[in-house]
Amino acid sequence: MIWQNFAVQNCPPSIYYLPDFITKEEECAIMQAVDKTPRPRWTQLSNRRLINYGGVPHPKGMIAEDIPVWLHHYVERINQLNVYAEGIKANHVLVNEYLPGQGIMPHLDGPLFFPTITTISCGSHTVLEYYEQTEDANGQSGSGSLVRQHKTSVLLEPRSLLIVKDDMYHKYLHSIAEREEDTIDARVANLSMISNAHAGDVLRRDKRISLTIRHVPKTSKMKIKIF
């Protein structure tokens, strides 16, 4: 699969959207494995819950942990795409669980990660919103007042793969709105790449599991096996 052929147009560089990257059977297996995860392994936040596999990223370095066997297939598939620089392999998987009505505030993933992020979506669609953040021209210089302007949206279907790099990683904040349904409009940059959604459609969310597979450059030589 040549991922460069799946570039999303009408947005800054670079977003790539690959529909049906995994099969329905693989999607089901992922969701079953996540459902079996012991509760203490989860980190509960106010708007979602998550699991770090491979370690917990930290500015001083991530203490490496083994990634569970059931994830190896998907990590290897990402590595085989060669989306990172030569010699760099994925070593971290962030599992997020979003229930209908849950989301995440606009943010940058930042310098803890190699600036290429890959995300597999399971169970439900979602809409990823991107924002440009600039200093308020009407505010006083140095006041720290910032303005966020919507730049683009990307519809993520179940079983799809999203690849984000370049300016879209470094410069544009991304978020998921806290709502139970999404109205598809012309701001969705990859709408022409979606076979079963059109402008004006209202899509109700279900439980969504995402696997964000990435590379953490700074790791500790100490390795912990927890499985």
Automatic annotation (TrEMBL):
Compartments, as annotated in UniProt: Nucleus
GO MF entry, a single one: dioxygenase activity
Iron among keywords: yes
GO CC, alphabetical: nucleus
Pfam name, any one: 2OG-FeII_Oxy_2
Gene3D superfamilies according to UniProt: Alpha-ketoglutarate-dependent dioxygenase AlkB-like
Record InterPro entries: AlkB-like, AlkB-like_sf, ALKBH6, Oxoglu/Fe-dep_dioxygenase_dom
Cofactors demanded by this protein: Fe(2+)
Residues covered by the Fe2OG dioxygenase domain: 89-217
Source organism superkingdom: Eukaryota
Keyword Membrane tagged: no
Keywords for the protein's UniProt record, in alphabetical order: Dioxygenase, Iron, Metal-binding, Nucleus, Oxidoreductase
Family membership noted in the UniProt record: Belongs to the alkB family.
Protein name: Fe2OG dioxygenase domain-containing protein
Organism: Anopheles quadriannulatus
Organism placement in taxonomy: Eukaryota, Metazoa, Ecdysozoa, Arthropoda, Hexapoda
